[in-house]
Amino acid sequence: MPRRKFTKKRSKVKYSNTKKMVTGHGPTLLEQIAAGAGTVAKLATAVAPAIAAINTEHKYHDQSAAVSAHTPGTNDQLIALTGNITTGVSDTNRIGNSILAKDLQLRLALNFNATTGTPNVMGAHCRMMLICWKENSGQNQPTIAKIFEQPNNLYSPVNKDNADQFVVMKDKFFALNSSSGLTGSAGFTHMKLFKPINWHLRWNDGTGGSATQNHIYLLLRCANGSLNALTTTYYSRLNFTDN
């Protein structure tokens, strides 16, 4: 007599009726999806549209200014590009205390006016950095001393003691261009960049001064130059989804 072959049936994922009995409510959406999905791959396919639908409101934050004084350790420009987004209902506001930043666009121009400055600083090296500060809480705010090992040195590496507090997104050196270097001439440098982000920025409340996590700062410093002669004009746009 031939032996009978037994095949093991794949058990289906079942949702419990206990929840309905205790709370009076039926199964959750995920329980229903899991019950009919079968494999993990099918479950992921079924859940993906629901997750994608959470972040659908695309917004932006623009910021621009003209700043001067770039001496390392004395007049560094450390500019918050994202912290001052406040709550509201427009395309440039956030609804809650968290947003998903998608990308940052930045354009800037450094201009040296030799009429009010010293001609020999034409071509002075400058440094531009983008910093993501991970935790903005209480006294833990970004400072030049926390970022650089030697705050007064333009070429200083980052401070390893605080390396877990921030991420360097961009670190670029460049020089002002000069046609003659004589009094009355002007040196300038234009720069633009696009930086993908895709992480959450958070606040404690609806004000712009309550930034707590993962905010982005622009840092500008030059090795030489007159405080009255060097000016940086920048324009930034942060694209984000409001969640």
What does this 3D model show about the protein?
This protein has 243 residues and is mostly beta strands. The chain has helices spanning 18-23, 29-37, 40-52, 144-147; strands at 58-68, 77-80, 98-113, 125-135, 166-175, 186-203, 211-222, 230-242. Strands 1, 2, 3, 4, 5, 6, 7 and 8 form an eight-stranded antiparallel sheet that branches. Strand 6 and strand 7 form a beta hairpin. Helix 2 (29-37) packs antiparallel against helix 3. The longest helix has 13 residues, at 40-52.
Q: What's this entry about, in short?
A:
With 243 residues, the protein is mainly β. Helix content is 13%, strand content 39%.
Biggest sheet record: 8 strands, antiparallel
Question: Low-confidence parts lasting 5 or more residues at pLDDT below 50?
Answer: 13-24
Shape assignment: elongated
Number of strands: 8
Structural class of the secondary elements? mainly beta
**Run of helices and strands:** HHHEEEEHEEEE
End-to-end Cα distance? 67 Å
Determine the strand fraction and express it as a percent band: 35-45%
In which range does the helix fraction lie?
A: 10-25%
Arithmetic mean pLDDT: 77
Kindly provide the radius of gyration, computed on alpha-carbon positions and rounded to a whole number of angstroms.
27 Å
Number of helices: 4
